[in-house]
Each structure stands twice: as C-alpha cells, then as structure tokens.
C-alpha cells in the first residue's frame, strides 16, 4: 500500500507535561497540520491524560489516546504501581524507579505506525539528553538509531525531531516564552510524578527539575 508522504504534517508524542506541551506549540509554529498522540499505560496520575485532552481541545489540536496498558504489566515502576513510592532523588547508580523500561521505544514505534497511516512525515518528542535524569531512552544516540530502524521497518521516511535534546530546563522555559505560551505551560500542564497540575507537589524529581529550571530561567533572563 502506497501512502503519500505529507511533509507539512507532524505527530507529537504528547503527555500534557511541560516538555511535550512546549514541543506541541513548537510544532504548531513549524508545520501546517499537527496531531497529538497520548498513551494510557496505566499511569497513576490519570489527570495527565485529561490535561493532554484539555490542552488539545482548547488550542485546536487533533488528539488521540492509545491504549498501552501492556507496558504496566511488563515494567513495574513508581509511575504505574501504587505500592512503589516515587524516588525523591535520583540514585547515584542506575536509573530512578520512575524509569519505565522501553517506554520511549514503544511510544515512538506506535506513534510512527500511527503517523504513517496519516501520511505524516514528522514525529516530535520532548526527550532531552541535557535533563535526561539517567533515562537511556532520552539520549540522542537512541533517537537517531530508532529513526533509522523505523524508516527501514516501514519503508517510510520519518523524521524524528527533538527540539529539547540539547537544552536544559531553564532553556525549555525560555523556548516556551519565545513561543508565547509561558503561562500555558506554567499553569495548564502536568509534569508532577504525583499527579498535581501546575507547580506540582514540589517534592518529586520532576517537580524539582521543573522548579529549578524556572528559577534559573527567571534569573538568567531577568524576569
């Protein structure tokens, strides 16, 4: 089956958090048509999916949520299991217990299958090697490797974009500000591992990273 490639169409891996929301608006500036795809993988904070849905509805983005509950069965972690408390600090060795083995591999693979059916040439994800918290599937080498594999596996010319790959959280806040969506990202997104919108719980690694980045952003850019 021949599917025509649309180089003006993009699919964003969208969680409703700070990074993916910044990437969503980055994509809206860059491409004529943008579709957001979220995943239900049994995460404890279901509000994440509601945030994603609400943001897409409010800002006129086509949104799809795919069922990936199998991931919860395969990879026990603090984001999906109520009996595992989220690490407050990243361990010196190994990955934090919030790391979900294979998550970005599966997310990007499923998004690529979806994107091909839509004829979308571009895939956007908010991974960052600068702020990757020890997550191996946020590294540039992984993304480049997977991009080649996906193209070969489906005989389709995907281009995976990672706008945040080489910037830290302060620079991510700056990008949101430059895009004119700073207040949206600050108030309407959910980054917190404990499922609290906006500034979050302030205690989990995601909240600490977000807050420290925001303070550095305000200091560096004299807001």
From TrEMBL:
Does the keyword Ligase belong to this entry? yes
* UniProt cofactor note: Binds 1 zinc ion per subunit.
Any one Pfam family match given in the protein's UniProt record, by short name: QueC
* Pathway info: Purine metabolism; 7-cyano-7-deazaguanine biosynthesis
The chemistry this enzyme catalyses reads: 7-carboxy-7-carbaguanine + NH4(+) + 2 ATP = 7-cyano-7-carbaguanine + 2 AMP + 2 diphosphate + 2 H(+)
Per UniProt, the keywords (alphabetical) are: Aminotransferase, ATP-binding, Ligase, Metal-binding, Nucleotide-binding, Queuosine biosynthesis, Transferase, Zinc
What the entry lists under InterPro entries is as follows: QueC (IPR018317), Rossmann-like_a/b/a_fold (IPR014729)
Kindly list the positions annotated as binding Zn(2+): 192, 201, 204, 207
Q: What is its EC number?
A: 6.3.4.20
Q: Which domain of life is it from?
A: Bacteria
Cofactors: Zn(2+)
Which positions are annotated as binding ATP?
14-24
| Record-level Gene Ontology MF annotations | ligase activity; transaminase activity
- Family matches, as PANTHER family: 7-CYANO-7-DEAZAGUANINE SYNTHASE
Family statement: Belongs to the QueC family.
Q: What does this protein do?
A: Catalyzes the ATP-dependent conversion of 7-carboxy-7-deazaguanine (CDG) to 7-cyano-7-deazaguanine (preQ(0)).
Q: How does it assemble?
A: Homodimer.
Name it: 7-cyano-7-deazaguanine synthase
Q: What is the lineage of its organism?
A: Bacteria, Bacillati, Bacillota, Clostridia, Peptostreptococcales
Q: Which gene encodes it?
A: queC
